[in-house]
Specification:
The chain is α/β, with parallel strands linked by helices and 352 residues long. It contains 11 helices and 11 strands. The strands form 3 sheets. It has a 6-stranded parallel β-sheet, sandwiched between helices. A 3-stranded antiparallel β-sheet has the order 9-10-11. It binds 1,4-dihydronicotinamide adenine dinucleotide (NAI) and oxaloacetate ion. This is Malate dehydrogenase.
């Protein structure tokens, strides 16, 4: 007969096999990475996602884990990081995944990163504007960017947290204060506006969205989102009704999702897809690929989403808007006015 303690020991041994310690949570006592032969270190880039357990963060973590350019993926959140890390780490793709939970692990999450994507923060509910999120998200972005300034000041930062028109200026001021500001490295993620514009234009034209490229400039809220329908590729023309319909749908795409979700948040899946595209473009730029061109909210001009060329040092070239028609020029004036207020609001949050 086995004694009770022998049985317990056998159960412990068996369960150690059933639950091998592969969840690489920072500071976890059950970890024994040292006992594994894999040491990481494969060629590739190191990417951190801050807010990885959220609606965007989870899908984005999965998509970034699938990117062959990524060798190390750090998943940070203030809740549920262990679960998401365990889950994503079982995918048989190259990137080594490590999880980080809570503020005391932020610095370890950020150290050595090449690219930091930030979808941390609260999303909208029906009836809210993106600006209504400022109160909560401004402080979250400030804290996370202070971490970036301290631990990976040379990383490219892709800011998703809303209101982007104000959170990017907040990040810029945090980096300026820390003496680490590099305008090439700070980008607001507006890719979802381009993704939506491509989809809606393709629908109107009856063509494949993968063949369409719509530049969307300005900012990321309402009238500040300015699709340049006169510069669509492949070249095409629209009726005035089509232009009104498309401009309105692209500018209000976020609200369309918020209302359809009826209180359960805002766009997460299409946003994760867009952010994964954005991250891939940044990494191709860092690798030195030629001709990586994306629309993104940059801090020069100052603060404006426009076409940029991504390279080894970030947004290396900012393209002019190109010829605008009268409709677009009027839209630009409206966008500039609202943008100026949002930028000012973000900057003065830091320089109060
Ligand atoms: N730029 C864009 O095009 C888009 C931006 N967004 C914005 O992205 C943000 C996130 O949206 P969802 O993922 O749907 O929200 P969510 O609520 O599902 O997830 C947010 C995550 O952030 C985490 N978080 C909160 N405070 C944090 C902190 N101090 N440090 C680290 N993580 C923290 C939460 O624990 C949560 O897991 C929102 O502000 C939303 O408005 C959403 C869609 C598109
Ligand atoms: O609309 C929102 O609140 C989320 C967002 O930025 C978008 O979907 O474009």
């Amino acid at each position: 007969m086995n004694s009770g303690s022998e049985v317990n020991q056998r159960i412990a041994r068996i369960s150690a096999h059933l639950h091998p310690p592969t969840i690489q949570m920072e500071g976890s006592s059950v970890l024994s990475r040292a006992s594994c032969r894999a040491k990481g270190g494969a060629p590739g880039f190191k990417v951190a996602i801050l807010g990885a357990a959220g609606g965007i963060g989870q899908s984005l973590s999965m998509l970034v884990k699938m990117n062959p350019l990524v060798s190390v993926l750090h998943l940070y959140d203030v809740v549920n990081a262990p679960g998401v890390t365990a889950d994503v780490s079982h995918m048989d793709t190259g990137a080594v995944v490590r999880g980080f939970l809570g503020q005391q692990q932020l610095e370890n999450a950020l150290t050595g990163m090449d690219l930091v994507i930030i979808p941390a923060g609260v999303p909208r509910k029906p009836g809210m504007t993106r600006d209504d999120l400022f109160k909560i998200n401004a402080g979250i972005v400030k804290t996370l960017c202070e971490g970036v300034a301290k631990c990976c000041p040379r990383a490219i930062v892709g800011l998703i947290s809303n209101p982007v028109n104000s959170t990017v200026p907040i990040a810029a001021e945090v980096f300026k204060k820390a003496g680490t500001f590099d305008p090439k490295k700070l980008l607001g993620v507006t890719t979802l506006d381009v993704v939506r514009a491509n989809t809606f234009v393709a629908e109107v034209l009856g063509i494949d969205p993968r063949e369409v490229n719509v530049p969307v400039v300005g900012g990321h809220a309402g009238v500040t989102i300015l699709p340049l329908l006169s510069q669509v590729k492949p070249p095409c023309s629209f009726t005035p009704e089509e232009i009104n319909y498309l401009t309105d749908r692209i500018q209000n795409g976020g609200t369309e999702v918020v209302e359809a979700k009826a209180g359960a948040g805002s766009a997460t899946l299409s946003m994760a897809y867009a952010a994964a595209k954005f991250a891939d473009a940044c990494l191709r730029g860092l690798r030195g690929d030629a001709g990586v061109i994306e629309c993104s909210f940059v801090t020069e001009l100052p603060f404006f989403a426009t076409k940029v060329r991504l390279g080894r040092t970030g947004a290396e070239e900012i393209f002019p808007l190109g010829p605008l028609n009268e409709y677009e020029r009027a839209g630009l004036e409206k966008a500039k006015k609202e943008l100026a207020e949002s930028i000012q609001k973000g900057a003065s949050f830091i320089n109060k």
